[in-house]
Every structure is written in structure tokens, then in C-alpha cells.
UniProtKB/TrEMBL annotation, chain A:
Family named by the database record: Belongs to the ELP5 family.
Keywords: Cytoplasm, Nucleus, tRNA processing
Organism name: Coffea arabica (Arabian coffee)
Compartments where located: Cytoplasm; Nucleus
Associated pathway: tRNA modification; 5-methoxycarbonylmethyl-2-thiouridine-tRNA biosynthesis
InterPro entries noted in UniProt: Elp5, P-loop_NTPase
Protein name in UniProt: Elongator complex protein 5
Chief location bin: cytoplasm
Tagged with keyword Glycosyltransferase: no
Coiled-coil ranges (or none): none
GO cellular component terms, semicolon-separated: cytosol; elongator holoenzyme complex; nucleus
TrEMBL record, chain B:
Protein's UniProt name: Elongator complex protein 6-like isoform X1
Matching Pfam families: ELP6
CDD domains attached to this UniProt entry: Elp6
SUPFAM superfamilies: P-loop containing nucleoside triphosphate hydrolases
BP-aspect Gene Ontology terms: tRNA wobble uridine modification
Family: Belongs to the ELP6 family.
PANTHER family assigned to the protein according to its UniProt record, in alphabetical order: ELONGATOR COMPLEX PROTEIN 6
Origin species: Coffea arabica
Amino acid sequence: MAAEAISRALRDGALEGEHAPALTIKDSIHAPLGAFVFDHILAQLSSNISSSKSQAQGIVLVAFARSPQFYAELLKSKANDAASLKKWLRIVDCYTDPLGWKIQLAESGIVSNRSTQNATTASLCKNVRDLDMLFSSIVELGKEVIRETKGRFAVAIDSVSEILRHASISSAASLLSNLRSHDQVACLFWLFHSDLHEMKASSALEYISSMVACVEPISNTANGKGMNSENVPLIEQNLGRGKFSVRFKRRNGRIRLMSEELHTEQMGINFVPAFEGHVTSQSLVPKVQFNLQLSEKERNDRAKVVLPFEHQGDGKPIQIYDGRRSVSESKTENKETNAEKMHVNEDSGRGEIIYIRDSDDEMPDSDEDPDDDLISDSTIFFLTVGILELLTN
Amino acid sequence: MMSSNSANNLLDEALGFNDECGGGGGGLLLLIEDRVETSGAFILHHLIKRRLSSPNRPNDVVVFLSFAHPFSHYDRILRKMGCNLGVQKENKRFVYYDMLNLNYPVTDGEKGAEDLLLSVYGKIQKTVELCSSREGYKNSTIMIDDISLMEVALCGSSNLVLDFLHYCYSLATQFDCLVIILNHEDVYSTVDVPSPLLQMEYLANIVIKAEPLATGLATDVHGQLTVLNKGICQGSGCSKSKIRNFHFRVKENCVEYFYPGSRT
């Protein structure tokens, strides 16, 4: 299962001398289920951390899209108590005051300085445009959760799309790359919405990643063709189910692809094996005005076509069809191979034409040139000259 | 067929609003997208009335940022619907910010625009904080009409608009408010760059699209509404997303909502 493979890779962490494994989770507005996948991965990794099964000894969560309280409730609902969370979870709060407006207003006395209570240690980030400061914050918080000198921590960023709103793609890529190459980072993963960015931004993020998990719609709806009551059920289906495709990049350069379906439930998501025929046939066949697909009968007929230079695997000796069969054989043949009917059954009650070719006596693929017995023009000339000389002499 | 004057019409049902709540819970962002052919302003008017007229919520406040029309425009429309905005304004239940008459610091560019936005946000937060401290307070509503004109006022910076919406959303989750914004879909029709409207669709909990019928104009059906309700997602669990699609007809004092083919 793809989701389990991702969890294992993040749990195992970085190998000595290698960069940390990095996961990109991407979705789009037509299959907006990436946040569910992010929460699932976070919960799985948290479970491994709290039970000391993972290389990472803690998580630094960078929260842009949802509040620290949301994540505290999420992880508590997965059987983590508040005291346990404080040991291994740190949150960089880029949600509450990302540009420092609330601090400015509080300092000028316009609003009161009400801080929101949360059960986890959240470090407020007041300027998300400064990615160097953000990197330092992440590393500092990471060092708080590791227990040994050579310990490592995991990093989770809930929206790289928000980072890209405030910084350039090169700055964002630099941040992620620096995190990935940091010797105390065990693994990292992030979510971004692919349709909010240009292709080069998406590609840059995928190049940095060792795993790319893509959430796509389960149904191809009539997007762009206008809304009506007929395509509402399909759109609603895409809000609850999706195709989950993962691409793993191995160290030796090989790519491994895995695919399954995901279904949203009240308490999270569930992954099930993909129904290959349904998904594949919908995604690979282009939309044109003529039929590119085969019907069942057409598939059966194609399977029955006899290939001239290939044995049929039916135990009979292989006989290569050389095109030298009688006309009567060609008239009576239906679906049998041509090689099986070299001799025609004679039936005196039926009229038939029997044609025996001169070259029938020869073995197939004989190297002998069948025209060898013919006299060439040059031979005739020399013979003629020779005869004339004899006659004149 | 249900009119907007009935206790619970198709729009309210699709939004998950019922009469007891008087217009729904808080901590949500509702995005209304309309087009030139089908204006979504009637939805704004309907929601203003719902939030101010509920007998169960006498202390709720509507904070209204207007970039599109003067106060008199909304007052006249809501009077026909049976709601006196003038009285509500005097009672501090309808807090109206006339953004049309603000002096925009055009010469300062984006920095000046951000300072303006900061001051506007400060006023909103102060208003919401004051309301939340009152006895019997349940919800506040922040409304913006409309986002595309707000972007114009901010020197075309869609990023600043998104920052402002993010702050309003965090305020909504902190003080249990409802944020309602109106935007025009066809203003952002472009294939060059990803549309900022898409960012708002990601941010919103409820998206209402007012579109013309696929078959074109009609005298008895003015358009169709598609309501995508993503439901509430908290750390402990999420409710299921739902989509409703139905037709509407705007009349003088109310709006009729009905499913396709159900009109006699």
C-alpha cells in the first residue's frame, strides 16, 4: 500500500551520508483532499515517534493554513495526551499573526493583546516573509525535542503554497533543501496545491522530494462546461474520494509507482486498493470525437487473430507459413492456421481445382536459387559466339 | 418552491443554517462568486437580514465593509425586505465602514496599501472584541462587498487581499465569527497565472456560485446557485462535504429558490 510505504520511509528516516527523505503531497481544487493526507501522515509519524519506533525523536510542525489548536486537537484525538505532546511536538505558529499585524495593533493600543491558549508549545512567527528566520526557528525548536546529541527531528509544513505567496520559489526551494540536508533532520513532508502555482514551481518542489504523493479526482467531471444538476453527484464524489498516486525516487535513480484510492471518513481517511480498470480507462483514453476503445466482442476477435509468424501455443509442431498454399485451401479455411492445411483432402464428389506448383518439392527456406536452372543472357551470348566460331572455322 | 421570506428556504438548508441558530455558527468563511449575467448581491442582502433579524440572537453584530455601494443603497433594499438598517446602525448592530470615501495613499504604493489595510483590520478586530464582551453575545458577522474592488483599492495587490482574508479568518476562528465575502468570477478569467480566486476557494468553508443557466436566459428562472459546503473540520473529526444545485428567481422583495423542473 502506498500510504504505508510513505509512513515507513518517514519512520526510517535518513541514512548516514544521505539527505533526509522528503515527501511532497499535492492536490488541486477538484480533489481538495491533500489536507486529509497531510493529517494522516502526521498522525502516523506522531504515533511512531511517541512509541519510539522512528528515527525522529520529535516533530517541528510549521502551521500556516490551520491553527496550532487544530493540530493539538488532532493529535490528542489519536490517543496522545497533552503532556506527551509537549515532549516531542513543537509548532511554529505562522497562522495567528503571519505579518505581525496583531502585535503592531496591540503595541499601539488599538486592540487588546489576547493570546490564544494552546496545549502545545507554539512559537509565534511574526514575519513569514523572512525565510532565514523561519529556518532558524525550525532548527531551534527541533533541538528542543531531541534527546541525544546525534538525535534527529522531523519537519512538517502544512502549506508550502502559503510560503510561495510571501517568498519566491528559489527562496522556498532553498529553505526546503537546507532542511533536507541538515544533519539533524530525519525526514520532512509538506503540502501544496498544484493549481495555485506555475508549472516550474511544482516541478522545483518535486525535484527536491524523494517521494511525491498526488491526489487526483476519482471522476472526470465536466469541468469548464458549466454547472448543472447532472454533474453535481460526480463533483460531490470527488470531495469524498480520490485517486492517490505516489512516486518513489530511489537512491539508484529508479522510480517506483504505486496507486490506490482514498476515502474520507469522519475521523480521517482510509486507503483502499485502486480499481485498476475503472481508473486507468478513464485517465488514459483521450477525449476525442471517435471511439478509441474496444468493445468486448472486438477484444475477443482480436485475441483470435492468427499471427503468421508465431506459434499458437497449442502443442502442435511449429510450421511457418510461407505463402505457398493452394487456392482451394484458401477458400475453405476459416480460423485454422495456414500451416496446418498443406494437403487438400480430395473428394471426388466435389469439383475442385488442384494446382501443383513446381516449387512445391523444395523445402521451405531452401538456399537454392529456384532460377538457377535457367540460362542467363550472358551465357546464351557466349554460347552463341562459340557456336559461330566453330561454324566459321 | 420556497421564498427567502419562509422560515427555511433551499439556500439556508444548503448553508446548514436553521432558524434556531439564526444564521449559522461561526468560525467559517463563506465565499459568494457571481458573474455579470447573474449578480450574487441578493445573497448578501438575504444574509444581512438573517443575521440581524433572528430573535434568538439579539446582540449579534454585522460589520460591513463596502467598496461597491453607499449605505443608502443597502438601506433601501433591506427596507423592502422588512429590515431597517438605519435603526440597526444606530443600535450599533450594523457597523458600516464606507470604504468608498477613504483616502487611498496611491503614491505610497503597496506599503501604503498595507498600512491602510492594517488600520481597517484593527477597527474590525476592536469592534469584534467589544461585541464579544457583551452579555448574550453569540456571533459576529464580517461582510465585504466586494473583493475585486478591494483589490483595486489596494493598488491591485491580490496578495494583500489574501493576507487580509487570512487575518479575518483567524479572527473568525478566535471569536466564533462568520466572514462573508463577495467576488466576481469573470474578473479573474485568465489562463496566464493562477487565479487568486482559487486561493479564496481553498480558504472558504462554504462556496456559493451564482451562474446563468446552461441553456441561456429565461424569464422565469434568473440563474442557478451551486452551494458547496465543505462542512466543519476540527481536529477531532470532519463532517462530510455536500453540494446542492438549484435555481433562483429574484423578485421585488424576495427571492424564490426551487429545484430544476419543480416550478408549476
